[in-house]
Amino acid sequence: MNATLIAVALSLVSAGAYAAAAVAQARLAGRTEASTGVLRLLGRGAWWSAVGLNAAGALLHVAALKYGPLTLVQPLGALTLVAAVPLGARAAGRRVSRTEWRGTVLTLLGLGALLLAAGGAAPHDTLSLAEALAVGAVTMALVAVLSRPGARPGLRHAAASGLASGVASALTQTLTVATTDRSGPLLSWRLVTVALLVSAFALGGLLLSQTAYRGGLGAPLAVVTLANPVAAAAIGVALLGEHLQGGAAGLIPALIGAAAAVRGVILLSRAQDRTASVAAPRAPEVRPSSRGVTAQAVGVARATDALPLRAEPVPGP
């Protein structure tokens, strides 16, 4: 079988596992207070179910990266959004809104355009130790900026999660290619360092996505799905010798796809805000009733009339 077809097939199954994991994380985030720490999450079975699904998706993703380049495998992760949005709506007991469908379709079309611009050759180049450390340092700085307190924490944490996951994928490809081509020792400083960075970014991306899903699933997952392939493809093009189909002309569909994907994220974000406002419980409004006040006044008057009357002695002169 063609290596590209194997990469696509593995990526499809990986996207399904990631979609189920995202829904499980979103449901857990909806039942978890914002102040809940990591240690409390470790004691919940739902958390470990999500971790297991993410691990299955990651293993399939690693296998796909053995047969396909980053610019091909990463955009296929957009299929996670196709499965997760309806699954999330079903878990919440509602239908997928028209705005959610429009946002999902636009995001997928945009990422599809990025996929058409991707190269299709199997990966051969790997990151050097200096390149891996530089990528790790830049990624940590960007994640720290995106994770700072402020407005729209869900989308910013989602962007940080997608960035960390995309970099983990790029580093994983280096690890996979270097360990399977048998061109060097398996316990070199480079591979050990890359393995540690992969673990750190994979775990960081998982925790950041858990925080991002507290406000809902659609928009944060779309941001994760968009940031992940963009980060990985940037590393592939800049450092691993990968290229876009058609050369400089391939940038045109890529830019159009990026614009469509951003529009889709905006629509999903609006749909999420509307769903949250509808689902938010409203406090009962207490209004003064003139009828109730009148009845209360009559009751007081009747109680006053019922009091016994006594003649008070009048002091003499």
Explain the overall architecture.
This protein has 12 helices and no strands. It has 317 residues and is mostly helical. It starts with a helix and ends in a 12-residue tail after the last helix. The relative contact order is 0.14. Mean pLDDT is 77; it is low at 281-312. Residues 1-19 form the signal peptide. This is DMT family transporter. It comes from Streptomyces flavovirens. Keywords: Membrane, Signal, Transmembrane, Transmembrane helix.
Shape: globular
How many distinct beta strands?
0
Strand content: under 5%
Largest sheet: none
- The radius of gyration computed from the alpha-carbon positions, rounded to a whole number of angstroms, is 28 Å
* Topology pattern, helix = H, strand = E: HHHHHHHHHHHH
Low-confidence stretches: 281-312
Count of helix runs: 12
**Proportion of helical residues:** over 70%
Distance N terminus to C terminus? 124 Å
Structural class: mainly alpha
Mean pLDDT: 77
Protein topology:
Layout lengths: L2 H28 L7 H5 L2 H23 L2 H4 L5 H13 L6 H19 L12 H18 L6 H28 L8 H24 L5 H22 L11 H29 L10 H16 L12
Helix pairs in contact: 1-3, 1-5, 3-8, 5-6, 5-10, 6-11, 7-8, 7-9, 8-9, 8-10, 10-11
Protein name: DMT family transporter
Keywords: Membrane, Signal, Transmembrane, Transmembrane helix
